[in-house]
């Protein structure tokens, strides 16, 4: 007979999901009510307002899609891209490649702007792409590339899109709540994220926001949106702004309790304080890693504080280290992806997992495991370096 599943208590310091706060887990266990219950509709409005705060936007079409970040990505593309369109897609890691897939599945042409993995998107290359393709109606790029730990300049790229009469689609799955993101000020048009990273919520929901210009394009489409479930004109019948809500799908009620609680917690902390916490803990982790003798894969000026790509030392078995960390310390870090597979580790400091305790625990565990492998590291230096950084 199959027994109930009781997972161990892990420390999640990979690329996501991140640790979930006990407050959020507690919210999940509250009584389920109907997805059209007046009290739940009230909660939906609160979630929209909290998401507007986190995205730093007044966009009316700001909602959580009832599916993970990949669905948020698809929602942006299928609503804004039509057959025959030309879309400039920037790729400096894995997730730009997924954007290309979405463009092509919409029946559009993807013009690729490629940069080395670990580098930000080149604004100059994007400018050249618009000059070569004045017909391009959309620019798509990743703010915080989860596969590499590199950050790109949203404000500059969105300004380029606007200067060329194009809309922008921006992936903020790893950035939302962890680093500065100003949707309205920077002029981003369609922005999607995920709940399992810096928002410290459970996986399975994708916050999205659409500018008035993006909404206008959606309303003026000549082709039906290819996804019924993600068609924003249908979804808005359920999410408002009208007082009477039309049934579209059964929302994940308890998951939205959890999202609401995580957003309340972020509001209590304050966005600027959350960003400062992520940066402080990142600097401590880097100080410890470098004191140990490890190096970072991304230049300092382009690094994400919430997703740290670390070069794997020569002669060290990537999978063996990650396995030992999981088995002996209940600590999860991530492997490299794509071109960086086997070359980097990805250490997350996202949301609830971004804490001094986790920084010190990770450095301790990594030093122990690398020492057992005979790696050429400096032992005993990581913790003092990290603690000195935290005090400073």
TrEMBL record:
Q: Which residues cross the membrane?
A: none
Q: Which Pfam families match?
A: Aminotran_5 (PF00266)
The UniProt keywords, alphabetically, are: Aminotransferase, Pyridoxal phosphate, Transferase
Q: Which Gene3D superfamilies match?
A: Aspartate Aminotransferase, domain 1, Type I PLP-dependent aspartate aminotransferase-like (Major domain)
Q: Which cofactor does it need?
A: pyridoxal 5'-phosphate
Could you tell me which residue ranges the Aminotransferase class V domain spans? 33-337
- One Gene Ontology biological process: glycine biosynthetic process, by transamination of glyoxylate
| Molecular-function annotations in GO | alanine-glyoxylate transaminase activity; L-serine-pyruvate transaminase activity
So what family is this one in? Belongs to the class-V pyridoxal-phosphate-dependent aminotransferase family.
Q: What is this protein called?
A: Alanine--glyoxylate aminotransferase family protein
* Organism in which the protein naturally occurs: Halioglobus japonicus
């Amino acid at each position: 007979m199959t027994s109930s599943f009781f997972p161990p208590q892990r420390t999640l310091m990979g690329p996501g999901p991140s640790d979930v706060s006990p407050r959020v887990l507690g919210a999940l266990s509250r009584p389920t009510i109907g997805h059209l219950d007046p009290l739940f509709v009230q909660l939906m409005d609160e979630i929209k307002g909290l998401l507007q705060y986190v995205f730093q936007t007044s966009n009316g079409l700001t909602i959580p899609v009832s599916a993970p970040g990949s669905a948020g990505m698809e929602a942006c593309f299928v609503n804004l891209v039509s057959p025959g369109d030309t879309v400039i897609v920037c790729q400096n890691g894995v997730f730009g490649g997924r954007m290309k897939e979405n463009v092509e599945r919409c029946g559009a042409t993807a013009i690729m702007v490629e940069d080395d993995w670990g580098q930000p998107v080149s604004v100059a290359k994007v400018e050249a792409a618009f000059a070569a393709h004045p017909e391009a109606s959309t620019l798509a790029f990743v703010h915080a590339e989860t596969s590499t730990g590199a950050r790109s300049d949203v404000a500059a790229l969105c300004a380029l899109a606007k200067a060329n009469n194009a809309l922008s689609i921006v992936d903020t799955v790893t950035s939302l709540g962890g680093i500065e993101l100003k949707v309205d000020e920077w002029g981003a048009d369609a922005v999607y994220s995920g709940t399992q990273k810096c928002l410290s919520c459970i996986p399975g929901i994708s916050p999205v926001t659409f500018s008035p210009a993006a909404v206008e394009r959606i309303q003026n489409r000549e082709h039906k949106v290819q996804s019924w479930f993600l068609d924003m004109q249908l979804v808005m019948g359920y999410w408002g702004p009208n007082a009477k809500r039309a049934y579209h799908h059964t929302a994940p009620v308890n998951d939205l309790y959890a999202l609401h609680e995580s957003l309340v917690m972020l509001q209590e902390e304050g966005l600027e304080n959350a960003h400062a916490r992520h940066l402080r803990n990142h600097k401590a982790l880097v100080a410890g890693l470098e004191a140990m003798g490890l190096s970072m894969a991304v230049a300092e000026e382009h690094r994400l504080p919430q997703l740290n790509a670390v070069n794997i030392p020569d002669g060290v078995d990537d999978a063996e280290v990650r396995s030992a960390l999981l088995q002996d310390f209940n600590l999860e870090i991530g492997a490299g992806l794509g071109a960086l597979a086997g070359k980097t580790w990805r250490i997350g400091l996202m949301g609830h997992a971004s804490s001094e305790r986790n920084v010190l625990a990770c450095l301790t565990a990594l030093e122990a495991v690398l020492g057992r492998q005979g790696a050429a590291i400096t032992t005993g230096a990581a913790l003092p370096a990290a603690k000195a950084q935290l005090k400073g």
